[in-house]
Design a protein that fits this description.
Strand content: 25-35%
Distance between the termini: 18 Å
Radius of gyration: 19 Å
Largest sheet: 6 strands, antiparallel
Shape: globular
Number of strands: 17
Strand order of the largest sheet: 8-7-17-16-13-14
Mean pLDDT: 75
Order of helices and strands: HHHEEEHHEEEEEEEEEEEEEEH
Oligomer: single chain
């Protein structure tokens, strides 16, 4: 429940800005999260003795309401996806993939209202994605981020480099992470790095063995050049590089919100 409370506070902070005043008058961000939770609850299934809930979520908003997300749409979608995952875990529900949230402008939705479509991904028999319908997908703007590259030092001493390009980077053993680590002491979904207010922020996702930055155990911390992240037996060093170096580095896989 502490994780859900933290997500709620994060959503509230996203709207503490002049561009969101109109939206706050019509629809509170926590109302959106509650609708997401209700959609998950309403579409749950029992499969193999487990209660499985949807992981593909579409939030339909009136175009005027969605316009109030200007500049924070990507962050809102990411926090809603985190909220969906935290809700599932808090209630003992299983998900086959980390939730993905899409924001859509839908003229059929009255101002101040919200509709959430929920569906299962390909990992569930009969799963599919929510129907696109006639709505327009809101293209979230690319978030400004410091130009940076991570140097990943594996347990066998080998190294590789992973660029940070403004999209959220998930880290862990599971193959659906943006940065996959082969380390038995690393959780399947161990941590993430995202961008807040043009700063890189490292967040430990309540992992089993925790995370350390510069030798200090952390749950969340802003990162800077030269910081040393320890996850299991793997070391990740934050490097700052020139723009042309980032462009020439291998492209990171696209990250869905969640």
């Amino acid at each position: 429940m502490r994780r859900l409370a933290a997500i709620e506070r994060a959503l509230e902070r996203l709207f503490e800005r002049p561009s969101a005043k109109l939206f706050r008058l019509r629809l509170q961000p926590i109302q959106v999260l509650r609708r997401v939770e209700r959609a998950i609850e309403g579409e749950r299934r029992t499969i193999g003795g487990r209660t499985v809930v949807p992981d593909q979520l579409e939030v339909h908003l009136n175009p005027a309401d969605l316009a109030a997300f200007e500049g924070v749409a990507a962050a809102v979608a990411a926090e809603l996806a985190d909220g969906a995952l935290a809700f599932a875990r808090a209630h003992g529900y299983a998900v086959t993939e980390r939730p993905r949230v899409t924001l859509r402008a839908d003229p059929a939705i009255p101002a101040g209202d919200v509709r959430v479509g929920a569906a299962f991904g390909a990992g569930v028999p009969g799963g599919n994605s929510p129907d696109d319908g006639a709505t327009r997908v809101y293209e979230a703007p690319r978030m400004e981020a410091p130009t940076a590259v991570l140097e990943v030092i594996a347990t066998d001493g080998s190294t590789r480099r992973a660029p940070i390009d403004g999209r959220r980077l998930s880290i862990g053993r599971a193959p659906d992470n943006g940065l996959v680590l082969t380390d038995s002491r690393v959780s399947r979904h161990h941590a993430r790095i995202n961008v807040r207010h043009r700063a890189l922020v490292f967040t430990d996702l309540d992992s089993m063995n925790g995370s350390r930055v510069n030798g200090v155990r952390v749950s969340e911390v802003a990162l800077g050049e030269g910081d040393r992240i320890e996850i299991g037996e793997t070391v990740i060093v934050v490097e700052a590089v020139a723009e042309d170096q980032l462009d020439s580095a291998p492209a990171a896989p696209e990250q869905a919100a969640g």
